[in-house]
Predict the structure.
Amino acid sequence: MKKKNIVFIAKSLDGFIAGKNGELDWLHSIPNPDNIDMGFNSLMEEIDAVIMGRTTYETVCGFGGEWPYNKHVFVLSNSLKNVPEKLEKKVTLINGTPQEILDKIYDRGFFKLYIDGGRTVQNFIKEDLIDELIITTIPILLGGGFPLFGDLANPIEFEHIESKLFLNQVIQNHYKRRK
C-alpha cells in the first residue's frame, strides 16, 4: 500500500495559522453562504486516518456539536490519558517521534494520512515526512500568531500541482514533495 502524508491547512497572508492568542475566527472572515468545503470532503475520501496534535484536538472538541471526522483520528499527546467515552472508537491517543508514530499507525493498516495541527505539521516537515501540502490562503494579515512553518535544518523542495480560487478571494495551492 502506498503511504502518503498530506497537510491540508489554512493560513493568513502573512503565514499564520492562528492569531496571537490562538484565535481562529479570522478563518471565517470571507463570507461563505453556500458552505463550500474547499476540498475538505474530497480529502476525507482520499485518506485513511487523521493525525492531529493535542491542541488541535482540544480546539475541535471545544467547537461542540457532532465529531466532524468520519475517519479515525490519532491524537498526539504525552499528557492526555483518555478521551471522552463518546469518542473512544473514533480517537486514539498516541505519542513518540513522528516516524515512530507513523510506524505505529501503519501497523494498524492506515497508510494515507491527513496531518493537522501547527506544531504537528512543523515536526513532520522537519523530519521530511510530508508528501503533499494543500494550503489555503485567507486574504488577511494577522500581524502575529502561530506560524505555519518553523525553522528547518535544510530546504525541502515541493512542486506546485495546482491552484484553485474559492469565493473569488481565497486561494488554495497544492504542492507535492519533490524527491
User: Anything to note?
Assistant: The longest helix spans residues 98-107. Strands lie at 4-12, 16-18, 49-53, 72-76, 91-94, 112-116, 132-138, 146-147, 158-166, 170-177. The two ends are 19 Å apart (CA to CA). Helices lie at 40-46, 54-62, 98-107, 118-126.
